[in-house]
Amino acid sequence: MDQRDASVPTISRISPFRASATTFGALIGSGFRRYATYRQATIAGTFTNIVFGFLRCYVLLAVAEEAVGQRPAGYDAGQLALYVWVGQGLLSVIGIWGWTELADRIRSGDIAADLLRPIAPVTGFLAADLGRALHAMMTRFGPPLLAGAVFFPLHTPARWQTVPLFAVSVILAVIICFGCRYVVNATAYWLQDARGPITLWTLGSGVLGGLYFPLRLFPQEVAVALWVATPLPSLLQTPLDVIAERDGPALQAGLVALQAVWAVVVLALAGLVQRRAERRLVVQGG
């Protein structure tokens, strides 16, 4: 079907890749515009992130000050300050908390409309989430980082590859976080009410993702096990370690490569869970 005269981009047999890319881009733009309408919420959320940034920064700097002549978990004071303020800026970009849209649509039955669309639910929700992340990066990442730079001495990246690696790491973190949230929300297919799993995700992702404190403060064996066995450190800990230059260039690149592996695994898991859920809906007559 030729879509040259269509007003809405859809998948065409003539150029399926181009049409799919156009549709995916349109969904990203839709997600961006959706969150751009919540201007007051954006301002309020940014202010809250800055306030909590001061609290977290003073706590970690106090830890660094007590460790006289040492570098707690391998960070100096400037790296710890950068860790906190970049983390506050990334909190909304990665979007660890607050997303229950899939679970709500499953509970209300609106998911049936998503299953009738020509694009898979995982793909559609991922595109919208990338649009949300892009809006958050443009509006909520800079102010906390600027506030931190004004009041604290922040570490300045010294390696040319740090910033490009950080950008790739953030994109992968957004994808991994989306996949994890999708799987957690998808439990509503079986439980009908996913508030329990979502609560567990809210508690676990902040602690084991590196939001409240660097995971390097754990014993080395525990930190390595978390990195290898779970995707949670790839949410915040890895991007923050990359930008803070906590490790050498080779380990920096290795951590980002591990993120890429987890992104593939988590998206594959989300797709598998969705397909199993669709078969269950057919059995139920949905």
Your description of this structure?
InterPro entries: ABC-2_transporter-like. Pfam families: ABC2_membrane_6 (PF06182). It comes from Actinoplanes philippinensis. Keywords: Membrane, Transmembrane, Transmembrane helix. This is ABC-2 type transport system permease protein. The chain is mainly α and 286 residues long. It has one domain. The protein contains 13 helices and no strands. Helix 8 packs parallel to helix 13. The longest helix has 36 residues.
Tell me the layout of helices and strands:
Layout: H1 16-36, H2 39-66, H3 77-94, H4 101-108, H5 111-115, H6 121-139, H7 142-151, H8 162-186, H9 188-191, H10 195-208, H11 220-229, H12 237-244, H13 249-284
Helix pairs in contact: 1-6, 2-3, 2-7, 3-6, 3-7, 3-12, 6-8, 8-12, 8-13, 12-13
Protein name: ABC-2 type transport system permease protein
InterPro entries: ABC-2_transporter-like
Transmembrane segments: 41-61, 81-99, 163-184, 196-215, 252-273
